[in-house]
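Model the whole thing, not chain by chain.
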Amino acid sequence: MSWGMVRPWAIAMLVGVFLFPLYWAAVASFTPETQLFGHIDLIPTGFVIDHYRAVFTERALGTAVVNSLVVAGATTLLCVPIGALGAYALARLPFRGRTLVLTSILAISMFPQISIVSPLYLLLRELRLIDTYAGLVLPYLTFAMPLTIWLLVGFFRQLPRELEEAALMDGAGQLRTLWAIVLPLSWPGLGTTAILTFLYCWNEFLFALCFTLGPDRYTVPVAIALFRGQYQVPWGQILAGALVATLPVAILVFVAQRRIVAGLTSGAVKG
Amino acid sequence: MASISLQGVSKRFATGVAAVADLDLEIAHGELLVLVGPSGSGKSTVLRLIAGLDAPTTGRILIEGEDVTGVPPQQRDLAMVFQSYALYPHKTVRENLAFGLQMRRIAAARIEERVREVASTLGIDNLLDRRPAALSGGQRQRVALGRAMVRSPRAFLLDEPLSNLDPVLRIETRAELALLHRRLGATMVYVTHDQEEAMTLGTRIAVMRDGALEQVAAPMDLYDRPANTFVASFIGSPAMNIWPATMIRTDREHLLVGIRPHDIELTSPDAGDAIGRVEILEPLGPTTLVHVAVEAASSSRARIVVQANTRIAIGDQVGFRVHRDRLHFFDGTSGRRVHFDSDSSVYR
């Protein structure tokens, strides 16, 4: 058998491996609680939306989704412009210790989060930011920034330098050049960075768990994790919540898929 | 329009490479100075230093007598045409042309007027709403030129602006550039590695090698009186013949003698100064370049230009005679030009 004949099967198998857990979760989330632990069918027999109703009425997952959107959205909106300024300076402006700054930024992202939860908690408590949106956005900003900066530095560096020099010769200052020439040409990079930052915040669990106090401020991952009661694990609801949490992200990635790929592989080959 | 002056300018890169070493250069108001040299000679670096895109390690740069060494490029009011044109890909031709004027906060109506003016001068008025990607190489080149012209800068800096054009278009554009320079009366600094471009365009030519100036002179001065063997062989095509020689009358040894291929005549084998055998024939159209292996000097080869209709074949035994008054003499060790009284006798 030639590779050409094997390939479609290989791809199908690979896709199957990745999609099966998702499918299983979807099936389970629509299966009545009573059947969940009984006989397992690949094709669902009973179909109920009880779990979905439950997560939005009993569990207030709607609030959590809103919280997640606010926190992830705000972080992204702050992170990309600030990161772009920093990245441009690191990519283009000649100054001493540029490499040192870049490596330090990378080092920040290597900190195990758990090790700074307690000091961060004390700090946020002093600032009266516990259980607020800002109390999550600020730490997220710190942790998302290294990725943002590294991605954007790579992106800015691959732009032809002569374009910026032409802008300088035309009388534009550094900031003006960034705004009028560099940013419009880097929107695939900015888009990629924004999406990855958003995903990071959307999925973050530890900080969200520690710095929020109740359902009013829980984000989606925290809310789902706390579905679990003392005596029982409501698997149907957990899986329904997981699907709700995955959906916006999946849509976002599908829409921007091409751009993400372009962004992640940028710099690998000369465009 | 302005004069530009470089005083003792050096540029050493972080890698330790000295791109330009202790350079003095005066560019007069309204002049088209061509910086020419082989690649790596530092000519582009000189242009970038004038532009302010690189800062000199030592020395001063003056524009109109004012020291601009520490002034950033956006405040020098110079325009640059890049080899790659560096047009803003996300802007239309109109926006490309207007950008420099917008940066100077000129009224929109005046900008539009100025853009139209320049566009019609360059014959690109019908392209104003296109983006660079939809333009041909020649059109892009014009837009790049237009972007420089539109704001009437103090001087134009052109970095090999014709090197990305095909040969026919290049020669056409070259002539247009010369016209443009005359009409604008603008100070221009033009970098090229093409000696023909330098000869045809420059009011003066600065020949560079290894970050230093070899000679600065008007094109025909450079051609008639090259200061050293490097300039002699770099300027003029086909390249000058340069042979080791000894001056019999003064008994001076270690000399180099140069003669341009156009200044040698083919003769019958018994009538010339020397004889040789034809090795290669290169037809150039109106003329043919003949490579002759000289018999008296086994390693020497003479390049001679003859009319295309000359009857000659590879392997022919020929004689040739050099025009004595067209000989150039250079010192054998330094390569510098040496002056002798005319009618010197030469042994080769």
